[in-house]
Design goal:
Pfam families: Pribosyltran. It catalyses: IMP + diphosphate = hypoxanthine + 5-phospho-alpha-D-ribose 1-diphosphate; GMP + diphosphate = guanine + 5-phospho-alpha-D-ribose 1-diphosphate. This is Hypoxanthine phosphoribosyltransferase. It comes from Buteo japonicus. It is a single chain. The chain contains three helices and ten strands, in the order E-E-E-H-E-H-E-E-H-E-E-E-E. With 208 residues, the protein is an alpha/beta fold. The chain has a domain of 142 residues: Rossmann fold. 26% of the residues are buried. The protein binds hypoxanthine and magnesium ion. Magnesium ion binds next to loops.
Length: 208
């Protein structure tokens, strides 16, 4: 593909009334609107799987999930890729791996990252590509292992003035600069257990 296609959600988009969907009782009060319904996420994911497999040729894929925010998308995307492998004319072997990223915000203009396997309690991961700095740092670490090819797939990117212009190779949705939760994206670790990607209002003091 020459440029990444993605589904663009406009700044004016207000999403859907949350009462039209099944929201867990324990989150009802804290959520404002449903921004991207689960079904739309899955439909878009299915198409991303097709695009990826078309571009990938016959290369063995090492699928690397960036935890925690990526786990739902990763699992659903791999399910779709496996379905293509199962039913298509060609298939490629896939192995999986996982990283958790800790981003340090210090005085330095560049963001230092460390890839952590243990030390789970102190982590503050980045769940969405916003500025792209964390992803660039991860990519430069991956290069140490001399992979043949690295492609980045992101379900969401945000339109933000803070972005220095990083674009993943595959993008599900480009969204306005709003804080969204659900579908494994959290606010202080809550809302990962929510299928729809809703957006949240900051008056929700319960979860601070
Ligand atoms: N939601 C959840 N986690 C995030 C977001 C967001 O909008 N942006 C960066 N990390
Ligand atoms: Mg988070």
């Amino acid at each position: 593909m020459l440029f990444p296609f993605h589904l663009q959600i406009r700044d004016e988009e207000t999403g859907y009334n949350k009462n039209l969907f099944c929201i867990p009782k324990h989150y009802e009060e804290d959520l404002e609107r449903v921004f991207i319904p689960h079904g739309l996420i899955l439909d878009r994911t299915e198409r991303l799987a097709r695009d990826i497999m078309q571009d990938m040729g016959s290369h063995h894929i090492v699928a690397l999930c960036v935890l925690k925010g990526g786990y739902k998308f990763f699992a659903d995307l791999l399910d779709r890729i496996k379905a293509l492998n199962q039913n298509g004319d060609k298939s490629v072997p896939i192995t999986v791996d996982f990283v958790r990223i800790k981003s340090y915000c210090n005085d330095s203009p560049t963001e230092e990252i460390s890839i952590v396997g243990e030390e789970l309690s102190t982590l503050s991961g980045k769940d969405i590509i916003e500025t792209g700095r964390t992803m660039k740092a991860l990519l430069s670490k991956l290069k140490d292992n001399e992979p043949k090819m690295v492609k980045v797939v992101s379900l969401l990117i945000k339109r933000t003035h803070r972005s220095p212009g990083y674009r993943p190779d595959y993008i599900g949705f480009e969204i306005p600069d709003k804080f969204v939760v659900g579908y494994a994206l959290d606010y202080n670790e809550y809302f990962r257990d929510l299928n729809v990607s809703t957006y949240i209002i900051y008056k929700c003091i319960n979860y601070r």
